[in-house]
């Protein structure tokens, strides 16, 4: 399996602290040693750092922990391969353009019969993972449903939720999807999230000897949500998402979820 | 204007030496300080490093000079903005999927009337540069001409050459396009290339106090072509491309050019 990490914030925020914990799970405190990737959005643009090597021993991962890139939306994945070889084209997150935006996709889990259950035509995979295949299928379905014009946020992500459920039914699919502005998180069996806001406190990583006092890094107006497969800190309260549930985060807050609409 | 750098090799080769020279032109020995990007292919996969900040002062560029990533195809660009703001989404190279491959595009020059002369429909730009618009137009034309199936290499790149000429007629367009296997270089007014093969010699950078003895870095079978806006070394003989000419490189060698077919 793999591990997911994502962030949504209302101000450009770096993810050095959280990533410092997660990267240890790629070959050190965890077995997810088959590559890793992280995508940072800045406005409509985004940049990814990827390596098919273990994150715990990657000079590129080391740079990501030390060079604070400020972003409002981040998607990250460390991989333990079960579908597709260990190589660059099979490394998440996957990014594809649609409706004049960069769409990012990361998946934790494993799918069966995805080639027959999720036939694709318009968006062809480059690698050989079940994950990229499912992402291409989602993009095909979005085009069939909405054509050349992106619909409203709520309509779009409620439809994406039905697609995520379809994929989840083929096995296990914890899914993160983002267009840089919105961050959609679907829980199959393992996804946690925490929203940090004033009054900020301290936090200590589980996977590394590292603590931070968010008071010193933030202003009173900052709102930052972090989503992860497993909690990254041991002195904060994380929400555990239920199976089949999803949240849409925007500017650091949950704005729509499967139970309610509060956009 | 901007500067281009690209590499085609028959064995995975790092580009640390050439990039060490080029990056100095982004804010130090040259004025191309409005961002930079480099794309490394590994098989069908690729990874890019991008920064809207000057390459000469970028910690990410510093990593690229020190961490030898081996690749058979590399495309790099340092930007001096003239169309579109300085921001991540306007930073080259641009990458888009087509026919199950990653296509990479970098452009040096400036275009007029590109929105009316290169109308686009299927592939929508994310940023605001003339360059990304032209790339989207090329992809639209490829789809109209060949549909869902990639044609043979020679037919494809001869058609791309006609598209490059169309774009070049709108201003200045030195263009690099690659699918990871083939590297196409079109010269509008400024493009040089060199093919290094046994017996290898020494070379000294123009933009940094750095020299290399390729004998110590290579085997007798290695063939490596480097393409750049301006020569990067002052003790080797670079070919200057003529206006309107193009080359298709594969595995380090020019396999087709505008004058002849030798594939």
Account of the protein in words:
- The structure is a homodimer of 263-residue chains.
- In chain A, the strands form three sheets. In chain A, strands 3-2-4-1-12-9-13 form a seven-stranded antiparallel beta sheet, with helices on one face.
- The first copy, chain A, is globular, with a radius of gyration of 17 Å.
- Helix content of chain A is 20%, strand content 36%.
- Chain A contains five helices and 16 strands.
- Chain A has one domain: Aminohydrolase, N-terminal nucleophile (Ntn) domain (Glutamine Phosphoribosylpyrophosphate, subunit 1, domain 1, 4-Layer Sandwich), CATH 3.60.20.10.
- The model of chain A has no long low-confidence stretch (mean pLDDT 94).
- In chain A, helix 1 runs antiparallel to helix 2 (59-66) and helix 4 (130-146) crosses helix 5.
- With 263 residues, chain A is an alpha+beta fold.
- The two termini of chain A are 33 Å apart.
**Main beta sheet of chain A: strand number and arrangement?**
7 strands, antiparallel
Number of helices of chain A: 5
State mean pLDDT of chain A (0 to 100 scale): 94
Question: From the alpha-carbon coordinates, what is the Rg of chain A to the nearest angstrom?
Answer: 17 Å
Which percent range describes the beta-strand content of chain A?
A: 35-45%
Give the CATH architecture of chain A.
Answer: 4-Layer Sandwich
Strand order of the largest sheet of chain A: 3-2-4-1-12-9-13
Biggest interface and its residues per chain? A-B, 32 and 32 residues
């Amino acid at each position: 399996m793999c591990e997911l990490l994502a962030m949504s914030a209302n101000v450009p925020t770096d993810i050095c602290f959280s990533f410092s914990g997660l990267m240890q799970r790629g070959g050190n405190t965890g077995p997810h040693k088959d590559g890793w990737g992280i995508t940072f959005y800045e406005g409509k643009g985004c940049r990814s750092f990827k390596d098919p090597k273990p994150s715990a021993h990657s000079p590129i991962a080391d740079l990501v922990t030390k060079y604070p890139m400020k972003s409002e939306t981040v998607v990250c994945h460390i991989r333990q391969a079960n579908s597709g070889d260990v190589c660059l084209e099979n490394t998440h997150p996957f990014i594809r353009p649609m409706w004049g935006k960069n769409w990012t996709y990361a998946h934790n889990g494993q799918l069966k019969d995805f080639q027959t259950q999720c036939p694709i035509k318009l968006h062809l995979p480059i690698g050989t993972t079940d994950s990229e295949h499912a992402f291409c299928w989602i993009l095909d379905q979005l085009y069939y449903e909405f054509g050349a014009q992106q619909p409203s946020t709520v309509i779009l992500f409620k439809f994406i939720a039905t697609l995520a459920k379809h994929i989840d039914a083929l096995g296990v699919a914890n899914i993160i999807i983002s267009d840089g502005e919105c961050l959609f998180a679907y829980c199959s069996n393992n996804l946690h999230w925490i929203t940090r806001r004033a009054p900020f406190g301290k936090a200590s990583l589980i996977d590394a000897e590292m603590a931070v006092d968010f008071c010193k890094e933030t202003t009173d107006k900052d709102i930052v949500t972090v989503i992860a497969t497993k909690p990254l800190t041991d002195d904060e309260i994380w929400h555990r998402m239920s199976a089949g549930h999803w949240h849409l985060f925007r500017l650091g807050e949950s704005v729509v979820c499967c139970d309610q609409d509060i956009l």
